[in-house]
Write a structure and sequence with these properties.
Keywords: Signal. The longest helix has 22 residues. This protein is an all-alpha fold. The chain is built from 5 helices and no strands.
């Protein structure tokens, strides 16, 4: 008798989960595919670990990267879609990424090392100070 009850326990649990999935209103995937839909969410949860060692990086998927797809999913669900600023790409050693080194009012431009000799024109909509600026190192109101 005890063995029959233990054998029925997983079946009853799955039936209860299926009933819950059919009546819930938050996830259409679970409503259309009760019980089995939970496997999709479980695989999505361990996805980063699988991609890290087995499949692909976050940028290799097409037409959208994994980060773009996560932003779209969060936006569609009305969840927080803010993400941290940064990149997984190797922007310092690969070609095609302009590196901007900040320097305020310098007479000599900074070197572009490790990309020495590379020159990248970056368009600018306006000049700081506009046409009234006398030049770097000159105080306003004191002409040359």
């Amino acid at each position: 008798m005890k063995a029959k009850v233990l054998a029925l326990l997983p079946v009853l649990s799955a039936a209860g989960l299926a009933a819950h999935d059919l009546w819930q209103k938050n996830h259409s995937l679970l409503r259309n595919y009760p019980v089995i839909g939970h496997a999709r969410y479980a695989i999505e949860t361990i996805g980063p670990e699988l991609r890290q060692y087995v499949v692909a990086s976050n940028d290799e998927e097409r037409p959208f990267s994994r980060h773009q797809r996560a932003w779209i999913y969060a936006s569609a669900k009305g969840e927080n879609n803010y993400v941290g600023f940064g990149t997984d790409n190797n922007v310092e050693d690969e070609e095609g990424y302009p590196i901007i080194k900040h320097r305020t009012f310098s007479l000599t431009p900074p070197s572009a090392a490790p990309h020495t000799g590379d020159h990248v024109d970056l368009p600018s909509a306006k000049l700081l100070g506009g046409a009234t600026r006398a030049g770097p190192g000159v105080s306003p109101g004191v002409g040359p």
